[in-house]
Amino acid sequence: MKIVSRNEELLRDALSSIPQSSSRTSLSSCNKLIQFEDISAAAFKIQCGIQKTPCMYSRLSKQYGMDIYLKKEFLQYTGSVKERGVLYLLTSLPQDQQRKGVIVASDSNFSMAVAYHASELRIPVFVIMSTSTSPARVKMCREYGAMVISYGTTAKDSQTHARRLAQENGYLYLEEEDSAVYLSGLGTVGLEVYEQVPKLDAVIFPAGGHCGLLAGSAAALKHLNPHISVIGVESESFPVLQQSLKAGHPIEDQACSNHHFYGDVSGLCFGSNSLQLTGKLVDKVVAVREEDILISMLRLLEYERATIDAEGAIGLAALVAGKLPELKGKRVAIVICSGNLELHLLQQCIARALTLDNRVCRFALVLSDSPGDMAKLLEILAREEVRVLDIKQERAFVTSELFTVEVTCTVETRDKIHTAQLRNAILERYPTAAWTER
């Protein structure tokens, strides 16, 4: 498949400024600069091994005042967009290297994609994981078909061991980087979005340190239509991309590691190729708070029935936070790139998001220790149509009068307006009630 466009100047201008430097993966094509033809070739080569994920109109459109289309890359087999770059990377390896095998050292989406697609291609694949890796990730990686080895207590220990095994046995050590092959595979997302949503005004991508998806897709989109705005979103806690763009080179000494909640968006900026493409082709990079990401995850769960992790939800978070007012009334696509939220985090994220969204609240008040007063409180809660999540009573350690009880209630409301109505009703009947602020 090859898509022909008259707009080649912008992409060629960006590519001309990228220095040819060696990459961390020993592939012969690492020094080759990304071009649009590489992306269209990647799309043709991986079309049988990758899901062409839907880009669907979202019910969130009305809420945010624009036509929102969600590119659901979390529907890939391993739940991540990284499969696109990985599959093209693996199929581009020489046959003798495919026979020897590959090795990776992390529990990231990249490693999961390598484990699955290498097994499907009958390439021997080894994954080195630290002993602190969650058992669920280890189990999943083994089910994909990889030989998983637990080694070391830190990611650095695992990487050192993987490099040693690669050198001793002839395996190719892979880690996520910005070679032309990998970026071209990721850039196929831009091709699909352009094909699936006509008359696009903007496309929003996750950014952060691993900005290959943003860079590769920007190369495709700007080649096809330079008037489409390409926007990257990263976390305020880890503004790696913005700092790297400001410095003019990848930031390698920043004291941040892959935060368990944020995933790859908290990683170090990994390459000058993707950074230079981002600087030339991406129109805007914004940063969002953790609170906005959590609410974004809640919106996607409620409106799209999609369990999305922070990396996948960060694009929508820019709209939740009101960081892109210029998109009001426009047609916007958002790439939901990952859905690998671990189960032990799911409940915490939902509970915290409901609180941030003013839909779970807590208040405390003092009642006389008699059944009648508790019944009156419950009557108010029933009249206000709230859902009672928890009621705790404390009698022994109260500082008020004798024969009183301190009652702490946790309730769920419909929205912020409903919460305000409940608060007014409680304070009207119990003026000394203390509301717990989030």
TrEMBL record:
List the InterPro entries hit by this protein, alphabetically.
Answer: ACT_dom, ACT_ThrD-II-like, Ser/Thr_Dehydratase, TrpB-like_PALP, TrpB-like_PALP_sf
A GO BP entry is:
L-threonine catabolic process
UniProt keywords (A-Z) are: Lyase, Pyridoxal phosphate
A GO molecular-function term, please?
threonine deaminase activity
Q: Which cofactor does it need?
A: pyridoxal 5'-phosphate
On the tree of life, the source organism's domain of life is Eukaryota
PROSITE patterns the UniProt entry points to: ACT (PS51671)
| Keyword Ubl conjugation on entry | no
List residues of the ACT domain.
362-438
| UniProt-recorded name of the protein | L-serine deaminase
